Input
Amino acid sequence: MAATVPLTTQVEPTAAELVERARAMIPTLKERAKRCVAEGKVPDETIAEMRAAGFFRILQPRRWGGYEMHPNTFFDVQKLLAEGCMSTGWVYGVVGCHPYELALFDDRAQREVWGEDDGALASSSYQPVGKVEHADGGFYLTGRWGFSSGSEHCQWVLLGALVPPGEPGGPPDMRTFLLPRGDYRIERNWDVFGLQGTGSQDIVVERAFVPEYRTHRSVDGFNCRNPGQKENDGILYTLPWAQIFVRSVSSAALGGARAGIEAALAIAADRVSTNTGKASRTDPILHAAIARAHAQVGEMELALRATFDDLMGYAERGEAIPLEKRSAYRYQSSTVVRRCAELIGDILPLLGGRAIYMSSPIVQPWLDLNAARAHVANDPNNWTADMIGGLMGQPPAMMFL
Output
């Protein structure tokens, strides 16, 4: 097996350089957005450009050619990519955060993924729908998982499933199973009204053997005591894995909302109603809706940045993060997409009939934001109990915090 040395020899960019590379891609992503939607996946050249820019290495361990950077750099890049094309930003967020979870796996699994290609990528579906059978040295996994964003660009997949208890009456063990491309097939069935370009296809597995070391226990991620931390001992990997993942499926909405606001301003600049003669550029009701969206998106971005500054502060001090904070940040993340969708939804009807054509620049962001609301992680109702319980000093009902 290859030694644990990075295959990539490029000079590590600064956080500011990565952010500017993402900003520079916005015009190109806007040009490709319709093609991304039509083809049902992010264009291959876009993935290649993101690879070349180093975006997928931001949360990857340095020992595997990654940059091991502050999560805020990752999310700054994601928001900018989503501003150009929300499907692209979504795929980047999901696929780009997986190097973090891979860093938590047993070192043998990391070697299999990155030993010969430290640029290998993984998609995921954490739905606990697989059938698991105990086997010598591991498990047999069977099932069909939906919503694996960016799967056609990846060489590996991370799949959720419940391991049956070893003894009668025992609790099941929620795990993530890591499989190479040869052990599953992708079925293209992504036919949706928004986020069409994410290519979130089905993954089908027919009784594939998965060794024990290629599984990651949810309880280990929750307790921040993971096998991979022995080799990847940087403070970044002491954070709760769920805090990284949930933000990866909500933060693209901030870029999508920015795109919606920019589209509204562009339409309003020269729109005059043929029925009333009212000019949008002087419409105080429209102005109020745009101003509210701009202000609240900015507030959510500040909250996101503060969240990870706080989490990293605990990591740097070697302190455990209070469950009250973890449940509050988890809940906060779940509200972002709905808030963004509502803000752009308030603006669109004020732009008149011209704004409802599919050619209107505000329609795709509006569709994408509403599609993103369907993700289980973006429904606040799923996380209210844990937040209130945290405020009352009660243990969480779920471990995805």
